[in-house]
Amino acid sequence: MNPSRTVIFLLLALGVVAVSFSGIFIKWSSAPAGVLAMHRLWLTAVLMLPWVWRERQELVRLTGGDWVRLCASGLFLSLHFLGWMSSFHYTSVASAMIFLNLTPLFVAWGAKLVFKEKYPARAFGGMGLALIGTALVVGGDFAWGRTALWGDALSFFGALTVAVHMLLGQNLRQRVSSTVYSFVVFVIASLVLAGYNGFADVPLFAYPAKEWGIFILLAVVPTVFGHLLFNWLLKFVKAVTIQMAILGEPVGTVLLAALLLGESVTLSQVVGGLLSIGGIVWFIRAQVTAEAEGARAAA
Q1: How far is CA 80 from CA 11, 156, 182, 272, in A?
Q2: Where are the chain's structural domains?
Q3: Where found (predicted)?
Q4: How many angstroms separate the CA atoms of 277 and 220, rounded?
Q5: How far apart are the C-alpha atoms of 77 and 124, rounded to whole Å?
């Protein structure tokens, strides 16, 4: 039984709040980006083991093609985390966030090319409004210079790679359960990151208790209640819809930074936040309504 539109809205909102904590936890940590991402993913995989054991028969039924796509999805997820988390060391949080929020455009273009998906024209008005709002939230904090531009490039790379990851996930989730899909992808991504850290000669486990606390927080809050929840929703909504919802992440991060880090909130950020949320609601309502109309026409 598919969840209702209201339930989908609420779950998307919960996921956005959860992933909004990512930037806060990253700012609190001094560990390298590859280590943060690796521990975040393998700890989440460990937490999932009881549920994976119940669905172990599905692991056996995976085809060779499924394994290839799962490995590709895990690879692109690891590249996303590596690029985006690393960007925080070179550019401002705001700049990193705005480049990441180009992802819905990449997902929409990719879905149109690969899956021949169509979107109602009115939905793109919501996408445009949300992008304008996001730009207002973070646009006053761009930093220019060679170092900052490298950080911006890393964030842009993170947006491209997570778009590919989401499109692969949308395809896989039509026949693979959320638990199995997420577990395998997280394990593969953490192994890729472990290999990268080993090659770069980065310590894997020699970190103080504070850092391990942050690793656990990253696994539980933005990964379990964010990425894992979004992976489950891929069964019921398109990847671009989820990426549109994630445009609310900068709004949540700015508010959390004000509460937890004492950072100030400007009027343009408030206005941008309202526009972004309004655009997200507009896009999702237009998409869900169009799908419902299409289902009634086909009946």
Answers
A1: 23, 9, 15, 26
A2: 5-298
A3: Endomembrane system
A4: 25
A5: 26
- pLDDT by residue (tens digit) across 93-117? 666 666 676 677 777 777 777 667 6
In contact, 268 and 132? CB cutoff 8 Å: no
Q: What is the secondary structure of 39-80 as a DSSP string? A: HHHHHHHHHHHHHHHHTHHHHHH--HHHHHHHHHHHHHHHHH
Task: Give CA–CA dist 283/129, Å, rounded.
Answer: 9
Residue 166 tokens, joined: 């989401």
User: C-alpha angle with apex 232: 52 to 114, nearest 5 degrees?
Assistant: 115
Q: Which two tokens stand for residue 184?
A: 């395998």
SS (H, E, C) 77-127: HHHHHHHHHHHCCCCCHHHHHHHHCCHHHHHHHHHHHHCCCCCCHHHHHHH
**What tens digit of pLDDT does each residue of 50-72 get?**
999 999 998 888 889 999 999 99
Chain position carrying tokens 């793109």? 124
